[in-house]
Amino acid sequence: MASIKDVAAEAGLSVATVSRVLNGHPSVSEDARRRVTDAVERLGYRPNAVARSLRTDQTRTLGLVISDVMNPYFTELARSVEEEARALGYSVIIGNADERPDLQDHHVTTLLDRRIDGLLVSPTDGGSPGMLGAARAGTPMVFVDRWIPGVDVPVVRSDGTAAVRDLVAHLYGLGHRRLAIIAGPAATTTGRERVDAFRAALAAYGLELPDAYIGQGDFQAGSGRRVTEGFLDLAEPPEVVFAADNLMALGSLDAVRARGLRVPDDIGLAAFDDIPWFVHTDPPVTAIAQPVRDLGRAAVRALVDRIEGRPGESVTLPARLVVRRSCGEPETERPPSPSPVRRSTP
Amino acid sequence: MASIKDVAAEAGLSVATVSRVLNGHPSVSEDARRRVTDAVERLGYRPNAVARSLRTDQTRTLGLVISDVMNPYFTELARSVEEEARALGYSVIIGNADERPDLQDHHVTTLLDRRIDGLLVSPTDGGSPGMLGAARAGTPMVFVDRWIPGVDVPVVRSDGTAAVRDLVAHLYGLGHRRLAIIAGPAATTTGRERVDAFRAALAAYGLELPDAYIGQGDFQAGSGRRVTEGFLDLAEPPEVVFAADNLMALGSLDAVRARGLRVPDDIGLAAFDDIPWFVHTDPPVTAIAQPVRDLGRAAVRALVDRIEGRPGESVTLPARLVVRRSCGEPETERPPSPSPVRRSTP
DNA sequence: ATCCTCCGTGTAATCGATTCCACAAGGAGG
DNA sequence: CCTCCTTGTGGAATCGATTACACGGAGGAT
């Protein structure tokens, strides 16, 4: 592969001049500029990003470590992050932690070894050593979705308390009183917050959240199934189950169906995180939707701000309730809406 | 951040010796080895992968350019690719082409600029200039899922002809005769092959595939909707629509529902690519499942073989039909099966 | 005409690793 | 006791870029 030296030779100039042309440095004669671009063209030369990074100490690359790629919520997040990063002239390398702290650490160290300019993390746990180290070492960093209290890093997330309140109001209005939740891991902020928000909302209606109605999940489908089975085995099963993420809701649906029961007639179901597929499930699932695209965009902007020396602030965006049929009859009969999967095509 | 020089100073040795210890070179005294590891420990030193790559001319990184991350099929492919690559000591950088040749080219050049060791591509089109250039330039390369005829690169893919035959047999057995297809872009191999396989299978039953029953889609939900609307407007609409990927099937479902019609009573639906959500849609969708994990694994192995100087061969794995309820009554009434989303949890 | 600027260019140092080659010390063999 | 090998180590070149500094020449001011 041709190097800058080859270009210099081909153009009959020094590597310094070639480099200047390549980087749009002002003090280069028109003649030299032309000769260099011609030589580049002839040789099909492309600058070696590795060498450039070594010299300039910046890779123009962002690392994104997410908890689970197979979760549509995170897939969409990753997509919007990449989009915004590209617009800002950065590439992104995605690491999938699969909800495992050890894998998360692996990716963090790998990314740091490659000297990425900044790190976007949605931590799987309360803080693995590798991650804490990275934060302390001064690598520009931003948390998305989940975060770790006590670590001084901007957080870009969505606040679901109002939406959860709306959800409880909706359920209460439908006559439901025994409401249960499938919680996420207590080590994650989203795991804890959603339970807290739910409990608080229930309290506003004079409802309790007994321990038996709090199932411990891990944000994966399997746990949703297991917890739901436990609920159904109760002497007095809940009337509605609220899953703290979409995968656990899926598992819950499975469990209900495996018993030959039906949603929402026998038991209602609601989920945190709305995804395109919830429109098409049987029945369509009532969910709390986060503004994922905006979250990704804001996270990248905050991180790039940090990288480029600007402050880089935390952002909290509200989530909102999307009522469908999985908890009982909706208020109004609307025509089916088109799938949100659709792109910009008219 | 500490460099190898700092380690050398701390250990009271030369950088050469430090490097040898780091790389497990045999001719290093036990004493030196200990002093170096101690120094590394004290300094929290991590080798700079950028510098290393520049010197050794290898990044131990694979590039993966896929057509659409939001498509669960590709998400799963990406996941299995990363998994296998990690097992083999490689990282992977994912580029999302979003079915756009220009974006695909952008990612290919970016990846090449970073001097990745090899490229895994599922081409969006018949071959964008950047990709063809990469193939010609001798970068180790392997096609996954889709490929480009005439380019001498191993292909790892799945063969759906048998499964499509099974599908048509299933539909024929259910009494359906007017069968339509929503095709993928003609520029992609999968776009063409699936139509061809479908036509051939129909022929085996003395059935035709009239032009009016071939809708041109682009593997995105929007086109599935549009094409299906066209089918429904026909004087004699098809009895079953076969979507060449899962996203278009989703769009098709939307369109049917938007008319107030029902699947499978008013019109049947089948899809290429099985995904976890098809179990939970209303109704569950009959689909052709590819062995995605195996595909990802095989692709990485072929690529790494190429990179490390071994031949690196093409692989074709069979797809299989998964019958559900979207085309009419299934043969047997089975208890609902658990969701395939489940991980290794028992 | 002289001096000072400014412009365009080239030389060489540098980033952080790897690795070839030289070399010193020590042991074996003659 | 001398030579030869082996072993462990260090010096320095190298990968491909960027950039500080030096320098020659053109042009303007005096």
UniProtKB/TrEMBL annotation, chains A, B:
Short name of one Pfam family: LacI
Region (Disordered): 326-346
Stretches assigned to coiled coil: none
InterPro entries hit by this protein: HTH_LacI, LacI/GalR-like_sensor, Lambda_DNA-bd_dom_sf, Peripla_BP_I
GO molecular function term, any single one: DNA binding
Alphabetical UniProt keywords: DNA-binding, Repressor, Transcription, Transcription regulation
Source taxon at top rank: Bacteria
The HTH lacI-type domain, residue ranges: 2-56
PANTHER family: HTH-TYPE TRANSCRIPTIONAL REPRESSOR PURR-RELATED, LACI-RELATED TRANSCRIPTIONAL REPRESSOR
Protein name: LacI family DNA-binding transcriptional regulator
